[in-house]
Write a structure and sequence with these properties.
Elements (H helix, E strand, L loop, with lengths): L1 H9 L3 E8 L2 E7 L10 E8 L6 E9 L3 E3 L11 E9 L2 E2 L3 E2 L5 H4 L6 E6 L4 E6 L2 E5 L5 E3 L7 E8 L7 E7 L3 E4 L7 E10 L4 E2 L6 E4 L1
Antiparallel strand pairs: 1-2, 2-5, 3-4, 3-6, 6-7, 6-8, 9-10, 10-15, 11-12, 13-14, 13-16, 16-17, 16-18
C-alpha cells in the first residue's frame, strides 16, 4: 500500500495552467517528478467557479499528451473557470492537481494584427486586420477580437538606415487603412503593428515586419 501511495504522489501532475491567445484556450501541465511518470495517462475535468460538479473533458480522458484544448468549454468569456488533472499509471491514480482560477475575458492574450503594406513613391499605405477569436458568427465567419474589447491599432515605422530597433509610433487608433506620407525615396522602411487595449493596459506582441523600398 505504501508503494502505491508513493506512486500516487510521484505521478501527480505539476503546474496545471491555462494558456489563452485570442480566446483559444488550452490547459497545460507537467508530469510528476518520478521518472516513470512520463508514461502516465491523464484525465481532465473543468467547471465554472461556484458550480459543485466537475465535468469530464471527454477528448482529454486517458490521454498521454500534456495539453488539453478547452476553447469550447470556456466560451462564456466573462465566467471564471477551474480545471484539474489527475494521472494514472499501472492502475494507480494520483490525486487531482488544480489550476488557478481563469477568466477568459481578463486573462486571454491578444495577438498582433495582420499587416499588409502597399507603397507608392513617397508614401506607404498600411492595411490592418485585427486578430480573430475562435467563435463564429451565425454566417460562419470568425468574430474579430475588436468585438470583445475596445482595441486600438498601434503602427510603428522602422527606418532601416537608422537602427533596426528604433521603432517610431506613427499611428494609434481604430482605422484599418492608414497612409504614411512624406517618406524618402530609395530608403527601405519596415512596418510593425500591435494591438493595444487601453482599459486593461495590455499590448499584444508585435506583428511580423513588413518591409518595402520606396
Amino acid at each position: 500500500v505504501l508503494e502505491n501511495h508513493d506512486l500516487q504522489d510521484s505521478i501527480k501532475p505539476q503546474k496545471v495552467e491555462f494558456h489563452s491567445l485570442n480566446f483559444n484556450t488550452t490547459l497545460h501541465w507537467q508530469p510528476g517528478w518520478a521518472r516513470e511518470a512520463r508514461d502516465a495517462l491523464y484525465f481532465v475535468q473543468y467547471k465554472v467557479y461556484g458550480q459543485s460538479t466537475w465535468q469530464n473533458k471527454d477528448e482529454c480522458w486517458g490521454i498521454s499528451s500534456r495539453v488539453c484544448d478547452l476553447t469550447h468549454e470556456t466560451s462564456d468569456i466573462q465566467e471564471p473557470y477551474y480545471s484539474r488533472v489527475r494521472a494514472a499509471l499501472a492502475g494507480v491514480y494520483s490525486s487531482w492537481s488544480l489550476s488557478c482560477r481563469f477568466t477568459p475575458w481578463r486573462e486571454t492574450m491578444i495577438g498582433p494584427p495582420m499587416v499588409t503594406v502597399v507603397h507608392s513613391n513617397k508614401s506607404i499605405t498600411v492595411k490592418l486586420q485585427a486578430p480573430r477569436s475562435p467563435y463564429r458568427r451565425k454566417r460562419g465567419s470568425k468574430i474579430p477580437m475588436t468585438n470583445y474589447y475596445d482595441l486600438l491599432f498601434q503602427v510603428f515605422i522602422i527606418n532601416n538606415l537608422l537602427d533596426e530597433q528604433h521603432r517610431v509610433l506613427v499611428y494609434e487608433g481604430k482605422e484599418k487603412v492608414i497612409k504614411i506620407q512624406d517618406l524618402r525615396p530609395g530608403i527601405s522602411y519596415c512596418i510593425v503593428a500591435k494591438m493595444y487595449m487601453p482599459m486593461l493596459d495590455h499590448s499584444s506582441a508585435y506583428s511580423s515586419r513588413q518591409c518595402t523600398m520606396l
